[in-house]
Amino acid sequence: MHLTALAAELGSKPAVIMGESGQSISYAELERASNRIAHVLTDLGLRPGDHIAILMENRLDVFPVAWAAQRSGLFYTPVNWHLTVAEAAYIVDNCEATVLISSSELAALADECARSASREVTRLTVGEDLEELASVAPDIPIAHELEGCYMFYSSGTTGRPKGILPELTGDAFGTGYAIDHMMGTAFGLGRDTIYLSPGPLYHAAPLGWSMGAIRNGGTAVVMERYDAERSLALIEQYGVTAAQFVPTMFVRLLKLPDEVRRSHDVGSLRIMIHAGAPCPVEIKRQMIDWLGPILVEFYAGSEGTGFFMVDSKAWLERPGTVGKALLGVVHICDDDGNELPVGEVGQVWFGDVRRFEYHGDPDKTAGAWNDRGWNTLGDLGHVDADGYLYLSDRRTDLILSGGVNVYPREIEDVLILHPAVADVAVIGLADDEFGQRVHAFVLPSDETLPGPDLEETLATYAREHLAGFKVPRGWTFLDEFPRLPSGKILRRKLPVS
Asked: CA 37, CA 98: separation in Å to the nearest integer?
């Protein structure tokens, strides 16, 4: 898992290929480029445990910078380039970056972030001053290489995003992390892997798994932006063997015309990994019917604590499960912290996991841990007699209507199957009589007109598939949803009037 050894073995083999431009970087080139940037960072005075921020689109330049930080024992935070100046500046300042590296296209945004920081931030731009400094730096490893780590920011569903600060291991570079090894042992990534990454590199899974594919000697094909049909074309073009999608991408794939899906040969796929959000049962069935039993789901958080996994065979026997624990021990507890029996829904806690903290937020950190050393991500769920975990919803999303718990996910899983629905989010709105009432926000599919007729069509459909108290009492049609970096809908920014 040492990039130097991989470069010596694999040489000109592509480590990364960009899906749209076709630009690539070989293992040997990645080794030299990341070494040079590591020397630049060291010459700037950065030492293990220090922090850099990266502000770039999905582009090839991300990888030499990330690997330079990784082999220098640094923390590195990729910043969502869709954020406003204030939002991006908050992350750059909060993560305590002393160096901010950007693309030339995002240089103005990066300059604003650096100017507003509470400490001095050195600005470097790929292809410009960073290239000048790197061109005269050695292309051999720095003297004392240590494993660094990315520090991503949580989704920020209840306020400003929080940095997830792991403990640096102090291990020599090349040791890798548990997830890197698991990609090989549990998911089969190796020298013959062509891994498709369709998501934004400022999110944990797209960057972390692309780098993990490289750690295991494979090639990462990275999409500049997600497009359903284009992803199928790339699978066919490069003979992709492994890919990782989120359920929203599945929905968009399944809503492509049949003739479009049939026109692309995706037979090279050996594993289709999915995570990032709960997947509706029927959507997953349709994906398995189409691709075969190659879907593998995992449930984890950017916090890197518990990790659950289930393959298609086990899932078909237990529809809806997110798997059994590979890392951590699951505990289901009530509001008082008492463990609940099999089958009862409660808050999901993970025991026997590595420690992390939310950077600069001791209150949120304290809320994520209990006095037994267990950690929670705030999800609700239950386990069956065989230890398989099933998620119900996030505690913060739960709707309490007339004294009855209503789980938005259950309603969303029904509505997303209607052909007029491209995406949907269900929330609870304040109600004088019931406390909360169920309300649905709908993104209509192409060529579907929003309005009273569609509202009645969807309400009728919901009544056919759901208990009466779960049927939305109000509907709002949107042109687009506010989203988190992971693609999840940002519920707190839905236009509630």
From this structure: 15
pTM to 2 decimal places: 0.86
Secondary structure, 3-state, the chain? CCHHHHHHHHCCCEEEEECCCCCEEEHHHHHHHHHHHHHHHHHCCCCCCCEEEEECCCCCCHHHHHHHHHHECCEEEECCCCCCHHHHHHHHHHCCCCEEEECCCCHHHHHHHHHHCCCCCEEEECCCHHHHHHHCCCCCCCCCCECCEECCECCCCCCCCCEEEECCCCCECCCCCHHHHHHHHCCCCCCCCEEEECCCCCCHHHHHHHHHHHHCCCEEEECCCCCHHHHHHHHHHHCCCEEEECHHHHHHHHCCCHHHHHCCCCCCCCEEEECCCCCCHHHHHHHHHHHCCCEEEEECCCCCCCEEEEEHHHHHHCCCEEEEEEECEEEEECCCCCECCCCCCEEEEEECCCCEEECCCHHHHHHHECCCCCECCCEEEEECCCCCEEEEEEHHHCEEECCEEECHHHHHHHHCCCCCEEEEEEEEEEECCCEEEEEEEEEECCCCCCCHHHHHHHHHHHHHHCCHHHCCCEEEECCCCCECCCCCECHHHCCCC
Q: At residue 214, what are phi and psi to the nearest 5 degrees?
A: -70, -45
Domains observed in the chain: 3-176 (3.40.50.12780), 398-493 (3.30.300.30)
Per-residue model confidence as pLDDT tens for the chain (497 residues): 799 999 999 999 999 999 999 999 999 999 999 999 999 999 999 999 999 999 999 999 999 999 999 999 999 999 989 888 988 999 999 999 999 999 999 999 999 999 999 999 999 999 999 999 999 999 999 999 999 999 998 755 456 778 998 888 899 999 998 889 999 999 999 999 999 999 999 988 999 999 999 999 999 999 999 999 999 999 999 999 999 998 889 988 999 999 999 999 999 999 999 987 778 899 999 999 999 999 999 998 877 778 999 999 999 999 999 999 998 999 999 988 999 999 999 999 999 888 888 888 888 888 889 999 999 988 889 999 999 999 886 767 878 787 677 888 889 999 999 999 999 999 999 877 777 899 999 999 988 889 999 999 999 999 999 888 899 999 999 999 988 766 778 887 898 86
Cα 141 to Cα 54, 146, 348: the distances in Å are 21, 11, 43
